[in-house]
């Protein structure tokens, strides 16, 4: 499942968060990207291609790793550190819109 | 290298007005040369907000605006693309009872023009537009108004004209214009000379040059509407939104990006402008207040353009008062996108018939006191 | 109502230098300005200085040594970090801060979700570079990362981007990161070098000017070979396969007639074709650009000391043309000396001359680099119409070609307006090189003939909620 593999620095404190509603664990000092991709294999879905994305440059240039929280905050996963209790979502918010069948006002 | 083109009509300025005039003139059978200093539709016509709106215009613009509405309805036939044009409705919000009354007054004054305005207020408003919550006491809906993608619409007119045989020259500045023996001679960059019986001055914020060259300077001012677009968001808003009394305006593009505008950018030079930081930040704050759906989103791009404004905010459209066969159309004061198509058509009529079937008297070039 | 804007005001006659970027160029610039008695503001997006190459691990229990993190470069990394630490009280270091706009001698910053405007009298742009890529089918699949990004995962997070990783592209990072990955204990499925072997062999003679770099490169190659890693020269990517994530890389061996397609199983691909400069702020600052044939990109004009075309604005390091970290350190210091000279302050002219002499050799090094790791200039010929070029907006190669061949767009900003290419969150950082190549080929011109994608504020996404501090001051 996990895309990223931990190969070093594994003695850090455990940080608990949720990913798509399920409890997950990361390590202190993980970026959100690391936290999500050691627990799964995507960060988000492209709005236009509806294909999964998992970041690309990891240094704040490609902007392909914007993820959201259940509260609707948007965070750049490669440059934001994981924090205890973050509730992260990798599913498309667009699919939810289509499923609900609601039209815009 | 010297090149000479002879034609019936020379058009200076390849924006939506010049481009649509070229198309309509070709449909009437005139030979046309369209000269554009930049790229067709790259200036204000192509970078404006994209509102396709009759509602809120001064009454004297409504006959033209109604004609434009009909042309917009034929867009796919004219251009071969819908250019993301949607008749989503334009909703003008009232944020106070006073503003609501102003909307009701406008509905009454414009009653004969066919806008079919509908005033919606109170609970009915909140039920119909839940996305807008209680941030307005009501609004006036023009159901057939809408929005479009100006980046696609405006260049498409020059392209459609070219497909019908118009000569379209981009990257071609006009250095000098002369008139003798009933002909205009335009000396252009790259050694091009254009000879034409008629001359249309549709050069937007840069139209002053030709007007002045023929002895009719106008008080035209360049201003720079400030706009921003967010990342794509799930659809929450179909209608194009304005606010009575001005301020922020917004529309959600079909792909989900929210386009908002308000405030002014600043000029880098006569040709280029940039968004201004305070205006951008103020716009973000005001837009988030009006559309809480974007409060947690990001602005991914800001832009502005260079647009000619007149003192009375009505455009200059019609014949020159000094020079036969010269017609002006510029100074749309930030509201030329929708009406531009009818202006292009009116210009074509002026060339063909010497008059337009639309009333243009309010847009006479000599209506301003002489500039010192 | 809009509260009046209140920015901090610079006293007449005062000098307020601002440095953007805390990598090798930025830190050396700051060091030199501090030595002259100035107190620069140094702004950087990272939490800790060092830039991408000498990026430091986050706070919170990371234990690897610098030797483990930076290998041959550990001493240089350590020296730069120490310099930065030593400057702590004499530089206003603003970490975790994005500069999103430059307008009329002031920068707009974003930090902790708030914007702030800071004026400058002098500006040193040390904005660095990121990987240059050219798209090919499957490049957006989870598991495809840039070479630099793959290195960041390891250096900064103790992670690899997969268990069995294919390394694809060209440039000094290709073999270095493959080596680092193998040492970290994951499988390297192969190194797929887009440079044909004869080209590389010829170019290596040019690298003799820089024997240390050459030796390091050869050492990585030798080490990888000795550990059984297949190295393929002249490889061309065909596609990345996978259902939702990478499962294989399909490539073609250009050396063989017709180029038979081959498949290698892997769960990640690390890809890059050298680096591209971050130039958006120079653009917004009004700097004049010129086309650089070596980088195949538009770069801000700068003189040997780093002066841009705008008085008081300097460009140092990879942000003004890719030359690597060592050159960036020299260029940062040199730009600071130019700043001091221009500000009428005492400066060490002898040191400036010495730096000029060393920097003059950088040009030769740059030539050697671009010869040894050439840009695959034939990419635009081979890429299919349905390949996605702009990963933000989902614009395909065919869409871009269409607006070029029917003469709607003879220039890249027009292509942007008509296709949305480069209009998304990254503002063309990932697609501009590819779009330039495609447009140029479709229009029958060179990459210098299609113009330059203009920067627009904000240069990276700006939260709508980033209300300015003047609001708080007014309430």
UniProtKB/TrEMBL annotation, chain A:
Keywords: Oxidoreductase. The keyword Repeat does not apply. The keyword Acetylation does not apply. GO terms for molecular function: iron-sulfur cluster binding; oxidoreductase activity. It comes from the Bacteria. Transmembrane segments: none annotated. Pfam families: Fer2_4. InterPro entries: 2Fe-2S-bd_N, 2Fe-2S_ferredoxin-like_sf. This is (2Fe-2S)-binding protein.
TrEMBL record, chain B:
Residues 8-350 form the FAD dependent oxidoreductase domain. The keyword Oxidoreductase applies. One of its GO terms (molecular function) is oxidoreductase activity. InterPro entries: FAD-dep_OxRdtase, FAD/NAD-bd_sf. Keywords: Oxidoreductase. It comes from the Bacteria. The keyword Lyase does not apply. One of its GO terms (cellular component) is cytoplasm. This is FAD-binding oxidoreductase. It comes from Azospirillum cavernae.
TrEMBL record, chain C:
The keyword Oxidoreductase applies. Residues 388-441 form the BFD-like [2Fe-2S]-binding domain. GO terms for molecular function: oxidoreductase activity. Pfam families: Fer2_BFD, Pyr_redox_2. Residues 18-319 form the FAD/NAD(P)-binding domain. InterPro entries: BFD-like_2Fe2S-bd_dom (IPR007419), BFD-like_2Fe2S-bd_dom_sf (IPR041854), FAD/NAD-bd_sf (IPR036188), FAD/NAD-binding_dom (IPR023753), Metab_Enz_Cyan_OpOx_G3PDH (IPR051691), Opine_Oxase_asu/HCN_bsu (IPR017224). Keywords: Oxidoreductase. It comes from the Bacteria. This is FAD/NAD(P)-binding oxidoreductase. It comes from Azospirillum cavernae.
């Amino acid at each position: 499942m996990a895309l990223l593999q931990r190969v070093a620095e594994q003695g850090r404190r455990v940080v608990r968060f949720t990913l798509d509603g399920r409890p997950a664990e990361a390590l202190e000092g993980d970026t959100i990207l690391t936290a999500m991709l050691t627990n799964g294999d995507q960060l988000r879905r492209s709005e236009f291609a509806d294909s999964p994305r998992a970041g690309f440059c990891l240094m704040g240039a490609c902007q392909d790793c914007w993820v959201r929280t259940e509260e609707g905050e948007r965070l750049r996963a490669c440059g934001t550190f994981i924090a205890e209790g973050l509730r992260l979502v990798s599913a498309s918010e667009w699919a939810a819109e289509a499923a609900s069948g609601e039209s815009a006002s | 290298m010297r090149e000479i083109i002879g034609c019936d009509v020379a058009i200076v300025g390849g924006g939506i007005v010049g481009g649509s005039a070229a198309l309509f003139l070709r449909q009437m059978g005139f030979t046309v040369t369209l000269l554009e200093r930049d790229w067709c539709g790259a200036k204000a016509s192509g970078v404006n907000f994209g509102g396709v709106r009759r509602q809120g215009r001064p009454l004297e613009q409504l006959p033209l605006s109604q004609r434009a509405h009909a042309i917009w309805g034929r867009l796919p036939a004219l251009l071969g693309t819908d250019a993301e044009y949607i008749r989503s409705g334009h909703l003008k919000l009232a944020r106070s009872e006073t503003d609501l009354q102003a909307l009701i007054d406008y509905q009454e004054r414009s009653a004969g023009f066919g806008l079919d305005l509908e005033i919606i207020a109170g609970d009915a408003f909140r039920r119909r537009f839940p996305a807008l919550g209680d941030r307005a006491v009501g609004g006036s809906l023009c159901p057939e108004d809408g929005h479009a993608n100006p980046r696609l619409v405006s260049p498409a007119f020059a392209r459609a004209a070219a497909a019908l045989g118009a000569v379209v020259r981009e990257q071609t500045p006009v250095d000098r214009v002369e008139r003798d023996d009933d002909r205009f001679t335009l000396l252009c960059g790259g050694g091009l000379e254009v000879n034409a019986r008629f001359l249309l001055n549709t050069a937007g914020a840069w139209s002053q040059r030709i007007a002045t060259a023929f002895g009719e300077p106008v008080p035209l001012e360049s201003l720079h509407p400030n706009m921003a677009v967010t990342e794509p968001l799930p659809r929450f808003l179909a209608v194009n939104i304005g606010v009575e009394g001005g301020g922020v305006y917004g529309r959600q593009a079909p792909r989900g990006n929210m386009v908002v505008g308000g405030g002014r950018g600043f000029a880098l030079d006569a040709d280029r402008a940039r968004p201004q930081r305070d205006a951008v930040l103020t716009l973000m704050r005001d837009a988030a207040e009006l559309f809480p759906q974007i409060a947690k989103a990001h602005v991914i791009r800001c832009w502005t353009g260079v647009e000619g404004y007149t003192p009375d905010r009505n455009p200059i459209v019609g014949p020159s008062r000094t020079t036969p066969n010269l017609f002006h159309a510029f100074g749309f004061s930030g509201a030329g996108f929708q009406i531009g198509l009818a202006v292009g058509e009116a210009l074509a009529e002026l060339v063909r018939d010497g008059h337009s079937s639309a009333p243009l008297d309010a847009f006479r070039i000599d209506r301003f006191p002489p500039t010192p | 109502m809009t509260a009046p804007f209140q920015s901090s005001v610079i006293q007449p006659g005062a000098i307020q230098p601002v440095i953007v970027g805390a990598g090798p160029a930025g830190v050396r610039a700051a060091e030199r300005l501090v030595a002259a008695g100035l107190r620069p503001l140094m702004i950087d997006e990272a939490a800790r200085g060092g830039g991408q190459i000498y990026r430091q691990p986050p706070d919170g229990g990371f234990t690897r040594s610098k030797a483990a993190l930076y290998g041959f470069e550990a001493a240089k990394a350590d020296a730069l970090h120490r310099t930065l630490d030593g400057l702590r009280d004499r530089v206003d270091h603003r970490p975790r801060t994005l500069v999103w706009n430059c307008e009329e001698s002031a920068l707009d910053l974003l930090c902790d979700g708030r914007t702030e405007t800071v004026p400058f009298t002098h500006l040193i742009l040390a904005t660095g570079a990121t990987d240059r890529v050219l798209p090919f089918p499957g490049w957006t699949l989870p598991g495809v990362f840039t070479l630099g990004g793959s290195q960041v995962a390891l250096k900064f997070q103790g992670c690899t981007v997969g268990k069995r990783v294919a390394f694809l592209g060209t440039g000094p990072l290709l073999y270095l990161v493959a080596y680092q990955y193998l040492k970290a204990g994951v499988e390297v499925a192969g190194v797929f070098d887009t440079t044909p072997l004869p080209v590389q062999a010829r170019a290596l003679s040019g690298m003799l000017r820089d024997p240390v770099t050459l030796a390091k490169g050869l050492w990585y190659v030798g080490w990888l070979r000795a550990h059984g890693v297949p190295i393929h020269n002249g490889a061309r990517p065909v596609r990345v396969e996978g259902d939702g994530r990478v499962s294989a890389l399909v490539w073609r061996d250009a050396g063989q007639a017709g180029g038979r397609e081959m498949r290698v199983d892997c769960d990640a691909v690390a890809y890059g074709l050298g680096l591209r400069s971050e130039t958006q702020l120079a653009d917004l600052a009004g700097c004049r650009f010129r086309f650089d044939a070596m980088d195949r990109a538009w770069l801000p004009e700068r003189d040997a000391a780093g002066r841009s075309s705008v008085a008081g604005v300097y460009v140092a390091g990879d942000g003004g043309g890719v030359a690597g970290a060592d050159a960036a350190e020299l260029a940062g210091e040199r730009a600071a000396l130019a700043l001091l000279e221009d500000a009428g302050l005492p400066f060490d002219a002898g040191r400036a001359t010495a730096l000029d002499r060393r920097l003059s050799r950088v040009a030769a090094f740059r030539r050697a680099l671009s010869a040894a790791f050439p840009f695959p200039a034939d990419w635009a010929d081979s890429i299919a119409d349905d390949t996605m070029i702009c990963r933000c907006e989902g614009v395909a190669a065919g869409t871009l070609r269409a607006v070029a061949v029917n003469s709607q767009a003879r220039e890249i900003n027009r292509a942007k307006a008509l296709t949305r290419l480069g209009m998304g969150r990254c503002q063309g950082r990932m697609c501009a090189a590819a779009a330039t190549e495609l447009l140029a080929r479709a229009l029958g011109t060179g990459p210098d003939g299609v113009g330059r994608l203009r920067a627009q504020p904000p240069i990276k996404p700006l939260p709508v909620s980033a209300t300015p501090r003047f609001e708080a001051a007014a309430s």
